[in-house]
Structures are given as C-alpha cells and as structure tokens.
Specification:
Elements lengths: L26 E6 L7 H16 L4 E8 L10 E6 L3 H14 L3 E6 L12 H5 L6 E5 L8 H13 L2 E4 L2 H9 L8 E3 L15 H4 L7 E5 L8 H14 L4 E5 L4 H7 L2 H13 L5 E4 L5 H10 L2 E4 L10 H8 L3 E4 L3 H6 L6 E2 L5 H13 L1 H15 L4 H17 L15 H6 L6 E5 L2 E9 H11 L8 H17 E2 L4 E2 L2 E2 L12 H17 L3 H14 L9 H17 L4 H21 L10 E2 L4 H13 L3 H17 L16 E2 L10 H18 L2 H15 L9 E2 L4 E2 L2 E3 L2 E3 L4 H23 L5 H5 L9
Parallel strand pairs: 1-2, 1-4, 2-3, 4-5, 5-6, 6-7, 8-9, 8-11, 9-10, 11-12, 12-13
Antiparallel strand pairs: 14-15, 15-18, 16-17, 19-20, 21-22, 23-24
Helix pairs in contact: 1-15, 7-9, 7-13, 11-14, 13-14, 17-18, 17-19, 17-27, 19-20, 19-21, 21-22, 21-23, 22-23, 22-24, 23-24, 23-25, 25-26, 25-27, 26-27
Protein name: Glycosyl transferase family 1
GO molecular function: glycosyltransferase activity
Keywords: Transferase
Length: about 775
C-alpha cells in the first residue's frame, strides 16, 4: 500500500511583508492602533515599531492594526488590519498570527479601541493565539465597571507578562486585580531622544517673537481640564499682557461624532467672557510627531490641568518633560510619578488660582524656570526611546525564552516514584496539589485503568513491584463493576464511598480497554485470564455506547485482546462496530480542508484515527485503514506549529472548523498522538510517523509553545498541562500516567532506529531538534 500524501495545509492568512526577516528571527505580533489613525495609542504603537526595529534588528515585527470604519489610508508597516467591530476579523488575525510562527504576541490595550462590551472582542483573539501574550495596559482602572473588570481579569489571567507605565498601575493590578507581581513590569512611556532647545525657530515662523508661551497638547475633550487653565489667564495677563496660551490639537473624533465642535466653541466663549480671547491661539490639527515636538519646544511652560487624577499615562506630558519644558500639572497618577523630585510643579485639581500663581513664579524668575527645565530634561533621558526600546526588547526576550528550554528525556524508563506517590492500598489517586497527592478528590476508574495498563507494558511486566501494584489497580477495576446496573462506576471518595452508581460512557470504555489490554499483555497467565474473563463479563455494555470515544476505547481493548484470542466474538463485534461508525463519521464530516471525523477537535483526538487504522487492519478493510491514515496525517499536520512543535488543541476550548483553541494543552493528547503514530508506523516504518511521534515526545521535554518542560524523568512526574503562561504546576495521575505510557509507546520508534543503517532518515531523527513537515 502506497504512503498516503498529506492533504494540502489549510489556507490561513499570513503576513507577507517584503522586508520580513529570515524564518529563524523571532517574530513579534504587535497589535494596536497604528498610523495613519490619529490617536495616542496609534502614535505609541508606531513609535514602538520604529524604535524597537532600530534597536533590535534581530526581531521580526508584524503589525496587526486596529481599523475603524472611518479610517482612511494605510501604512507599509501594517501586516494585517483588524476591523474594530468585526468579531470575525479578530479570529482571522489570530489564525494569521499562529500561521506566521509568532514567538510572542504584544497587545496594546486601551478601553475604547476594541469592539464588543468593554472591548471584549479582543478576547476572541488572545484566546486563540498560541504564542505567549504580553499586554501593555495603557489604562488601569481603579473603579472599573463590571464589564471592564471581566475583560481585564481575562487579560491578566491570559498574559505571560503585563506592562504598565507607572507604579500606581502596578500596585492597582496587584492589589485590586490580584495579578502576580512577578508578571507585572514597569516600563515608562517612551520619549524622543532630542537635544535640548532653549528656544524654538518656530517662534519666528509664527510671528510670536518673545511673547511668553503656555501650551497644552493633545486631542481636545473635557478630560483635558482646559476650562481651568483658561480661567487662570486673567490673573496671568494682568502682569504679562502679552501672554499666549496655545491649545494644540484636534477635537477628539468621538466627541466630534457626538456633538461636533460644541466643546471647543464653549472654550472660545469662556475666553471671550473673561476678556482673554486675544491671549489664546488655537492650532486645530492632529500633529505628526515631528510637528508635535517643535510645538512643545515652542512653549515656555507646559500646562497639564487634567481633572482625572486617576489618569495613568499621558504621552504629551512625557514628551514635554523629555524636551526639557517647565511643567505645571494637576497631581494625576502619571504626573505624580514623572514630576517627583522637583521635575515639575503640581497644583491642586481644578484650581485656576494655583495654576496662575505657579505660572507667574516661573515667568518672574527665569533662573527658577531654567533649573526646572534642566531637571526635566535630565529626567527625560531615562525615558528616551532607545532606552525604552531596549527595555521592551529585553522583556520580550525573557518571554520568548520562557523556561529553560528543552530538557533531555532519557530513553530509560522514567522513575516510578511518582506513580507510587500517587497510589495507596485502594488504587491511584486522581489529582495532586503541586507534587503532593490530593486526597480530597479521591480516585477514578479512568486513572486506575491507565495505571493497570502501564504496569503490564514493556519491561515493567518483569518487575515484581509493578506486578503487585497491577493487582491493586485490577482490584479497583473489579470493585468498580456495578452488577445490578451492568456498568462500571467511576468516582470514589477517599473514604472508599462510590460517588455515583455508574460512570460515564468514556470511563466505561477505558475500563474495557484496560481489560482487553491486560488479556493480551499481563505478565502472568493468571492475570491475563482474569482480564479476559472480566472483559467477557462486561463487554456487552459497549453495544449501547453512543460516545465515539467510548466506542473507540472499547475497540482498543478488543483489538488488543484479539492479538491473543483472534476469534473472540465479542471483541470482533466491538472492532466491527467501531470501524463502521468511525468510517461513516469520517466520510460524512470531512471537507476539502477538514479531513476529520467530527466538525470539531475535542480530546483524545488521535485515538479516533488509531482505532480506524486498527479496525481496517483487523478486518482487512483497505478503505478503513486508508481513511484512518488520512485522518491521522491531517491531524498531525494541524497539530504541528510553524516552528515544528507539537501543538494539540487545548481544553480551554474545542477547535471548530477553521480554528483551534491552543490552551490548556494536555499530556493525554501527546500520548494519544504517539500511540496513533506508533500504530501507523507498524505498517511501513515511515519517517513521517517517527517524526510526528518525536515532536509529541519532545513536547513533554519543553519543545512546546512555552519552552517549558512538563516531565521530569528523575522523579517520573508530569505536570498537568501547558497554560498560556507556562505549566500547570499540579501533578495528577492522568498526566503522569500519560507521560509514562507515551514513553512506553516511544520504545517502538527507538527500537526501530537502532535497527536502521546509519544513513537512514530514522536514525537522523534521533538527533534532529524537531520534525519538519513533509
């Protein structure tokens, strides 16, 4: 039978920037507003892109730009746009990011730039990306609405690293939102690295001459507190009649959409009523960065009379300090931290008299103003973009590197200490808190069935200790049978009380799998006979199974039993039913780019393909076997990341046609994939199957999306799964048994490699870092 070709990979949007760096360069998916949109986040994201690219030429930066319906034009740096109110666009962007092989996703978060309640559409993107997530929180609300709190809580839980620009922001995240302090970094707002200018040539161009100039910059809206500054002008003008207050910036687009220019007109009217209209100059434009810097250098005193004292970030304030301007500000969060140590003057909220008094002092005493400017300019060197870009680069490096990288998992049998630590005279306990068995959750037949199988595979069958434990796990399975209801129970409390009369179909299927496996592979004839007898007594329950996975588990046990008892009628019936059902499901559900049994990927996925392959061989049905192989090729291709890592669908969400939810990745999926590949490998020793199994095995060792090892061969433990920001530190029976059983199935490939000539591709796979898809 010829090797089946893999179906063509699903067409996913990819970044095709012509200046993209070589594949080896780590890719950063940078998400936020971007040029040509005119807002603070767009300016910040564009500055980040420009300066990080300049400081870190070894990084490939792909820009995913938020786009509103009113946006016009584009920018060459943009890889892909995301319609802010188009939910599907967020999902499409996530697929493109995954397809690009991004090593890290960096989100610029601000309320108001994403669609959905409280900007919740962005969660549909971050939940679907496999790379570690970094979030810069431009606003950290101390009194969020319920919707805002839910969005922030999700982002905090999902992110590997959070960035804020102030100590207040960090304290709020930790104390109010419960963020892990180790995950929260303070990196201040970047500012231009520009020589100090005592006077701007723009004075001549605007015919300002030597008039003293006050200025406020940014998009206009009530949040600027301009009324307070205008009310201070009569007092200042009384001593400096030629004082000029320049208000630079367009009205915020959202405000224009809601009420036109009513706010600006109210300010004009206020100035006229106070008799200072001639002291105001309006520059009603959104200034590009070079123009903005020139405008800031023009002023003698920068005013930041913001009424919202909870404001965490102000880009224009940071710019004014970096350019060495004398600053008068209300004590909002960013100002309190940036202007500490006499870098600027803080005045009470909504206090026009205090603003006038501070401005008069600085105008009357030039030496005081110049000293303040020098202190501001010196403080600004700490936030110069080259400094900030390097800090961002260092943080991204740490996130990309994750843990310690891949750990070598020896081929020798992992220590069984972890199994014994989870086991007692009843059986194996389900869960752990860290490495310690958790008695609160008792036992289940699923894990005892797996443990029974483990004790009866490979070299463990020859170990007397393992055989003693095999009897305990067998006793649990036997005791779980409810003869009255003709089904196995599943969950037992630590005090040996059964918690249910019958278990799920899946748990019953796994019990039959263990019994069939024991009938074929148990170390002693007595235990093989016990297994075969219990299989015969209980196999009839599978006739009523409706769950495809329960049917598949039972068929795995039946197929194993047929290796020793090839004419067993019950076992043959189970294999026939499973093969017919799965083959029909495959033919019904498959599409041109979806070669699978169901419209979604859930759990233990590779078992469906494995069972169909086994059924085809057992029943000598070439169509069944080829269908199972085709499905497994498709699944393995889908479970391989752009970097060649094993990436199973996660239990955080089930993968539907066209998308995959990458977390929480489970050890059970790696074992299932290795076992299915071993089944396919037995047919023709193809390097394809050896490579995919090798990738799944290396997933345990740290060759995964978080570069963190889950398994430790010295202790025999395996963590419970791969989360968005690392491993789940708990050690449960399912995970540890999956690791040990995966090791047993990998022995098939290792033994085959030893028999191959040195030049054979299978030999080379033993030392290659990852499998390249064929």
């Amino acid at each position: 039978m010829a090797e089946l070709d893999a179906p063509p990979p699903e067409a996913l949007p990819r970044c095709t920037r012509p200046e993209a760096l070589p594949r080896a360069a780590p890719r950063v998916a940078l998400i936020g507003c971007f040029r040509p949109r005119r807002c603070g986040i767009a300016t910040f994201t564009a500055d980040v892109h420009e300066h990080l690219a300049r400081e870190r030429a070894d990084l490939a930066i792909d820009v995913y730009a938020m786009r509103a319906k009113t946006d016009v034009g584009s920018d060459a740096a943009i890889c892909q746009t995301i319609g802010d109110h188009d939910l599907q666009a967020y999902r499409t962007a996530a697929a493109a990011i995954n397809a690009s092989g991004a090593a890290v996703v960096w989100l610029q978060h601000e309320f108001g730039i994403f669609g959905g309640e409280a900007g919740g559409f962005i969660l549909d993107l971050v939940d679907r990306v496999a790379a570690p997530l970094v979030v810069t929180l431009h606003t950290v609300l101390a009194a969020p609405t319920e919707g805002q709190r839910q969005v922030l809580d999700r982002l905090i839980a999902r992110a590997s690293q959070l960035i804020v620009m102030s100590q207040f922001g960090r304290d709020t995240l930790v104390e109010l939102y419960g963020a892990d302090p180790a995950k929260v970094a303070i990196i201040e707002h970047g500012t231009p690295d520009r020589a100090f200018a005592a006077s701007s040539p723009l004075r001549g161009a605007l015919a300002i001459g030597d008039r003293p100039v006050l200025s406020t910059f940014g998009l206009l809206g009530p949040g600027k507190g301009l009324e307070t500054a205008i009310r201070a002008l009569p007092t200042i003008a009384a001593q400096y009649p030629d004082i000029l207050y320049r208000i630079v910036g367009a009205t915020h687009p959202n405000l224009v959409a809601a009420e036109g220019e009513a706010y600006r007109e109210s300010l004009v009217a206020l100035a006229e009523s106070l008799g200072v209209a001639s002291n105001l100059a309006w520059d009603d434009r959104f200034l590009d960065t070079p123009e903005l810097l020139e405008a800031i250098e023009l002023c003698d005193i920068y005013l930041a009379p913001y009424p919202n004292l909870a404001q965490v970030t102000s880009g224009t304030l940071a710019y004014a300090v970096a350019l060495g301007r004398a600053v008068i500000s209300t004590p909002f969060v960013h100002a309190r931290e940036l202007l500490a140590d006499d870098v600027g003057i803080l005045v009470p909220q909504a206090d026009s008299e205090a603003i006038a008094e501070a401005a008069l002092l600085l105008l009357a005493v030039p030496a005081e103003r110049e000293a303040l400017q020098r202190r501001a300019y010196k403080r600004g060197r700490q936030t110069a973009w080259p400094v900030i870009a390097r800090a961002f680069g260092d943080l991204l490096d740490r996130v990309i590197e994750g843990g310690s990288g891949e750990r070598v998992l020896r081929r020798a049998t992992p220590s069984r200490g972890a199994i014994w630590a989870m086991s007692d005279s009843v059986g194996i306990l389900q869960h752990g808190r860290g490495p310690v068995a958790d008695r609160d959750h008792g036992y289940c037949i699923d894990d005892n069935a797996r443990a029974f199988m483990l004790m009866n595979c490979g070299e463990l069958r020859r170990d007397p200790d393992c055989q003693n434990w095999a009897l305990r796990y067998a006793s649990f399975i036997q005791h779980a049978w409810n003869d009255e209801l003709r089904a196995f129970r599943n969950f037992m409390a630590y005090d040996r009380r059964w918690l249910e009369a019958t278990g799920s179909e899946d748990s019953n299927g796994r019990a039959l799998w263990a019994l069939g496996y024991g009938a074929a592979h148990a170390a002693t004839g007595e235990l093989r006979d016990w297994s075969a007898d219990w299989f015969a007594r209980t196999a009839a329950i599978a006739a009523n199974f409706k769950s495809p996975r329960a049917i598949a588990f039972a068929a795995l046990g039946a197929d194993a039993l047929l290796d020793r008892h090839p004419s067993d009628p019950r076992a043959i019936q189970l294999v026939e039913r499973a093969g017919a059902l799965l083959h029909a499901m495959w033919k019904s559900a498959r599409r041109p780019t979806w070669d699978w049994f169901e419209p979604g990927l859930t759990y233990d996925n590779a078992r469906l393909a494995e069972v169909l392959i086994r059924a085809g061989r057992r029943l000598q049905s070439l169509p069944m076997e080829e269908a199972g192989l085709s499905a497994l090729v498709w699944l393995c291709d889908r479970q391989t990341s752009e970097q060649g890592n094993f990436r199973p669908v996660g239990s955080d969400g089930f993968g539907l046609m066209g998308e995959t939810m990458p977390f929480d990745q489970q050890p059970l999926e790696a074992w299932a994939t290795i076992a299915a590949c071993a089944t396919a490998f037995a047919r023709g020793a193809s390097p394809r199957w050896a490579g995919h199994a090798d990738a799944a095995w290396r997933w345990f060792a740290g060759r995964n999306d978080r570069r963190v090892a889950l398994a430790d061969p010295q202790t025999g433990r395996c963590r419970d799964g791969l989360t968005p920001h690392g491993v789940n530190l708990n050690v449960g029976a399912e995970s540890t048994l999956a690791y040990h059983l995966a090791h047993a199935d990998m022995a098939v490939f290792w033994a085959a490699r030893q028999r191959m000539p040195e030049e054979d591709p299978l030999r080379r796979l033993a030392s290659e870092p990852a499998f390249a898809r064929t």
